[in-house]
Amino acid sequence: MTDPSPDAPWPNTQQGIRRRNLSLVMHAVVAQGPLSRAAVAGRIGLTRAAVSTLVDELIRGGLLVELGPERPGTVGRPGSSLTVGPHGPVGIGAEIGVDHLAVCAVDLHGKVRARAAAEGDNRGRPPEPVLKELARLVGEVTSTARGLGLRPAGLAVAVPGLVARDSHTVVRAPNLGWSQVDIGAHLRADGPEGMALSVDNEANLGALAELWIGGDPAPQDFVHVSAEIGIGAALVVGGRLLRGTHGFAGELGHVPVRPEGPACPCGGRGCLEQYAGEEAVLRAAGLEPGGGRIGLLAGLADDGDQRVRRALRGAGSALGIALSGAVNLLDPQTVVLGGALSRLAPWLLPSLERELGRRTADPQRPRGGSVTVSRLGSQGPLLGAAHSVVQAVLDDPAALAGRAG
Ligand SMILES: [Zn+2]
């Protein structure tokens, strides 16, 4: 998390330049601090006088603090170093899963400072009680954060469905059975007042988490595949999430694997989800569908259950076929298996990599070396949600410092 996002919001005016420079200072201190003013100036290429003015503004806004002299005996400010304030902002992330709800608070260093969760099957539950429960968990986490002297700066919610570009309406979440649900309106009615709120697809937030905190160095061009009941993907190109015209890019689950295959609820036939979705894999393994079965599949495969292993090999092949289209089109550095899929990687990867290697056009492409497994696993979307708020603070600290008065 060392650079401002390519989508950072600065207009090309004097105010815009000031906001951009405030952001550069914040990014430098968070990534490399504690730093003296002179060190910040050296790193971002501004004069010390200019940096001092920016730093004073960030200190007044409660975003940075001065630690005092670096060496005992050094008098005055020149030797003192800057760091993120202990009572600074936190990003609140929330996740609506098919089998759970989760909320966490992440500080500017990327540390999780509070969390709360509730297990339970949300399939077919109407939105109102689910969102009331989520609002209660958000309230719990924000009051814990406030108790630690932190300031909640915004709330971002990850959902397993398509989200409109207004960033608060779920257009369709097939595995919850929701359509046209204005999450923003519900949470604003029941949730903490005055917090900026956004809603995004879980696969998008999982991919952004990978970009921000997943690797060192993080890949800048990759396809991130995740699954709960459905299969989602997100495309990161040049360090930027590719959202598409309507915000619906990355619907890998509905890429056809066999055009004459079984009918899919989306209206197509032989979609990837019909072969590699959780229910399809359970069916192929002779198991009953139900909530939270990824752990069961992983356990049985680990114990050597041949039927489960065969079902996972089949799912891996189908994933490889569907992903070969994306890899041929986009030429990414890597394909990342994230979310619950990362737990099944040992049994999915061999057939996935074989199919992908066979179908990607360039014979020089390293076979098997182009798929990686996310270290964030099923925590990706929740952490991505919280980090999207943190990233927004770092990209435009003036907005928050202004609000703090
Ligand atoms: Zn489909």
Key traits:
Arc Repressor Mutant, subunit A; 16 strands; binds zinc ion; five-stranded mixed beta sheet; about 40% helix; Nucleotidyltransferase, domain 5; 3 domains; alpha/beta; about 400 residues
Characterization of this structure:
With about 400 residues, the protein is α/β, with parallel strands linked by helices. The protein folds into three domains: about 15-85, Winged helix-like DNA-binding domain superfamily/Winged helix DNA-binding domain (Arc Repressor Mutant, subunit A, Orthogonal Bundle); about 90-205 and about 380-405, Nucleotidyltransferase, domain 5 (2-Layer Sandwich), CATH 3.30.420; about 215-375, ATPase, nucleotide binding domain (Nucleotidyltransferase, domain 5). The protein has helices at about 15-30, 35-45, 50-60, 125-145, 185-190, 200-215, 275, 280-285, 295-300, 305-330, 340-360, 380-395, 395-405; strands spanning about 35, 65-70, 80-85, 90-95, 100-105, 110-120, 150-160, 160-165, 170-175, 180, 195-200, 220-225, 230-235, 240, 335, 370-375. A five-stranded mixed beta sheet has the order 6-5-4-7-11, sandwiched between helices. Strand 8 (about 160-165) and strand 9 form a beta hairpin. Helix 6 crosses helix 12 and helix 12 (about 380-395) crosses helix 13 (about 395-405). The radius of gyration is 23 Å and the shape is globular. Zinc ion (ZN) binds near residues 254, 266 and 268. Zinc ion binds near residues 264 and 271.
